[in-house]
Amino acid sequence: CEDCGKSLIGECKLHGPLIRAKDRAIPSRARLTLPHYLTLRVLELRAGNQQILGVFAKKVIQKRTQFGPYVGQLSTKLTCYDESRLVLQVLKDGGKYFLDTPNEDCGNWMMFVRLARNQEEQTLVAYQHCGEVYFTTVKPIEPHTELKVWYAADYAKFMEASALFIKEESDVSPLPPVAKEPVDPWICSSCGSTFATFALLESHQCIHKDRV
User: Which domain holds residue 50?
Assistant: First the structure.
């Protein structure tokens, strides 16, 4: 303590604790890559302060606007699965790899884009080009609208995923729409869990094998 001239273990009982100044928090790589006309919003706060984020437009984004490529780590096994995000795979050097994003310092802002549950809320389409994945707008996106994505037709076949359904008039409700499961889900023969794509089922079965 500089006031009493003593070297102490812990706080000085006479003059009290030091005033601690914290360093300024540095945004992650993924957050720093967010274009200036997009913003992140916290949609839900789960246990352990886990934030569920969505990407929203701050101004009008024209149809046929391309984003990407998606940045992630190539992996033969999916290590980070979020049911609200698309699972992405690419062909590289004759092999099929997952684009994995275990944390925000390994990806770009596209990792925050949530999947669309129906054609009405879909604003982006995901597709593979030259071993990379890009998102392109399928309609003009108005300010304060969330960007949501689903697979392009050919990419859906590659991912062995179902097509999005068209929202029926009877589904319209003043309450928030309830997310529906994609048609024809893939079912795990070991535990009965269902998955939107074969890639997710395949990764899930690997987990069972590891446990065995």
Answer: 29-159
